[in-house]
Amino acid sequence: MTDWPNLHVSQHPAVRHKLGILRDANTEPKKFREVVRELSWLLGYEALADAHTRPIDVPTPLEVMQGEELADRIGFVPILRAGLGMVDAFLELMPTAQVWHLGLFRDERTLRPVEYYNKLPNSATVDLSLILDPMLATGGSATAAIEVLKRWGAVRIKLVNLIAAPEGVAAVSKAHPDVEIYCAALDRQLNEKGYIMPGLGDAGDRQFGTGGAS
Fold first, then answer.
1. What's the pTM?
2. How far is Cα 84 from Cα 71, in angstroms, rounded to an integer?
3. Which residue out of 72, 106, 125, 127 is catalytically annotated?
4. Between 32 and 210, whose confidence is greater?
5. φ, ψ dihedrals at 168, nearest 5°
6. How many domains does the chain have?
7. Could you tell me if residue 125 is inside a domain?
8. Structural domain boundaries, residue 182
9. How far is CA 65 from CA 52, 54, 58, 68, 70, in A?
10. Which DSSP symbol is given to 188?
11. Residue 140: its H or E element
């Protein structure tokens, strides 16, 4: 992990506990979605710790004091479809954030991302963008999403994943060393099909009950 100064792997005991539930092949979709949400909240808390604030006057029942309010305009960009399961938790943390969607799927022959949906406005409307995607495998989709946001005009970009593979971290770090990566675990490697090992299978299928790990 020292090779990637932009990588932040959570060490929180609650994260490690919930990650064990998420990986378990016997965890059914309803419980899986619940744990994705809980893990996302914890990771979001860490990823947003350096968001900028500005001072404001707050009238308490006894006197006026100087408080703070969020200064950054924050945007969440879930990668369809698996990233949708992370959005609600992030909105609980930052209810005023904007949510924009990107649709990317991985070509199973080339393992390269293909963009099929982009709901971003013409120019950047936020100061801090967080890309949400449960799995960072080859890094192809993440790198493509970052490139889309940079062309859009985004300056501060963070990537939030539940599980990352070294190959994906290396790819993103090489292409975009300025992007911070927050995850719950850094796993061992990818297999020949591009799945993270030991991983948890296909995050989208497990959330929505449409199949299993292959």
1. 0.88
2. 25
3. 106
4. 32
5. -70, -40
6. 1
7. yes
8. 7-51+71-208
9. 19, 14, 5, 10, 17
10. S
11. helix 140-152
Residue 185 falls inside a structural domain: yes
CB atoms within 10 A of CB 114: 13
Backbone phi, then psi, for 55, in 5-degree steps? -75, 145
Catalytic residue, chosen from 133, 156, 202, 206, is 202
Active site residue 23: no
What confidence score (pLDDT) does residue 113 get? 67
Q: How many whole angstroms separate alpha carbon 48 and alpha carbon 66?
A: 22
Tell whether 63 is covered by a domain: no
Model confidence at 213, pLDDT cuts 50, 70, 90, reads very low
Check if 106 is active-site.
Answer: yes
The pLDDT score that the predictor gives to residue 212 is 46
Say whether the peptide bond before residue 81 is cis (omega within 30 degrees of 0): yes
Output the six-digit token pair for 29. Answer: 């979709």
205 is catalytic: yes
